[in-house]
Amino acid sequence: MEQVKQAVRMNNVHYAIRGPLLDAAQKLEKEGRKIYKLNIGNTGAFDFEIDPRIREYVIQNIGKAGGYSDSSGIVEARTAIKAYHEKKGIRNISIDDIYIGNGVSELIAVVMQALLNPGDEVLIPSPDYPLWTASVNLCEGNAVHYMCDEESDWNPDLKDIEKKITARTKAIVIINPNNPTGSVYSKEIIQGIVDIARRHGLIIFSDEIYDRILYDGDIHYSPAAMADDILIFTFNGLSKVHRACGIRAGWMVISGDKSRYSGYLDGIKTLTSMRLCSNVPAQYAIKPALEKDDSIFALTAEGGRLREQRDIIHQMLNDIPGVSCKKARGSLYVFPKFDVERFNIKNDNKFVLDFLNAKNVLMVSGTGFNWPAPDHCRIVLLPPKDDLKEAMVRLKDFLATYRQA
What we know:
Layout: H1 20-30, E1 36-37, H2 52-60, H3 75-87, E2 98-101, H4 103-115, E3 121-126, H5 130-138, E4 142-149, E5 155-156, H6 158-163, E6 169-175, H7 187-200, E7 203-207, E8 232-237, E9 250-255, H8 262-274, H9 280-283, H10 286-292, H11 296-300, H12 305-318, E10 323-324, E11 333-334, E12 337-338, H13 340-343, H14 348-359, E13 361-362, E14 364-365, E15 377-380, H15 385-399
Parallel strand pairs: 1-13, 3-4, 3-6, 6-7, 7-8
Antiparallel strand pairs: 2-9, 4-5, 8-9, 10-12, 11-15, 14-15
Helix pairs in contact: 1-14, 3-10, 4-5, 4-8, 12-15
């Protein structure tokens, strides 16, 4: 019989973090090799534990979690989310403006499905977290990538954003603190994007999943705290700050002027109702996390595990001839640059695969984050210090003789 092919709409849908490179690494593991995995921000895989108060509260309430909740989420969780974002300066929100999902990923898909017609455009940073681009492409929209400037600590280029807006542009995505670069945007940059959205009538989708993973006294600014006259979606969750990736508890807060968007918001309500509700036991983790768990600050402060590992990876990368790396100011990643002429790198996927096969270290290629040149990769800060050091020693040794065939 004829082979069944994937739908045409899948042709431009890619997710490099869990793609062919991970498949290759898993094959090597089956052969008995130990792989140093610097590819995915999965906190639980590197001995980062969930606050026991969160776990205990979920267990205490498991008896209430046998039935469906409201499709938007349980009231106590949405109330805690409301209070958290009000402390960040977001005004005029009610629990009816809050939707809880099985992680932020599910909600990103929902907002794009409800918004986009074929050919509609969404401005997304380059480099980006590739789920945003994939979600737009899956809806047959066009992901238009605005550039972030490495020489300006990876801040977005406001002029590039402005010149890429067309009559088909519907929204702009902000990822701050940024995955994959580790940048934390200045207040002026966030205000500049808000002003652009206001002038052109654009929705803002603000991905703030790393909002409290900050180093060296950096401050996170939410666009929704700067404007209540434009529609803004603020996304957050428990996966990163609270090291609870497997719980799959994320949310979005809708704020600002909703007067032009009743049809769109009805579409979101329909889609969230179609999946009935998010995982109910996971929803009970939200209140204790937001009200009691500030443990992330000990990890990011001087002497904390994440801060130390950030410093180690930054120094060791910059000590490798032909490699440079901006210091991460937030999140769990760095995005080093490789001298493509020195190493003759024409294809960064091949470069990462060559390194994996030679030295048993898995990274993710920069083009997997919709960066246009084959000169970067993403490295995760989560593995223990000794593993990070060993991986960087192997990278230095590999690059000492590497010239891409």
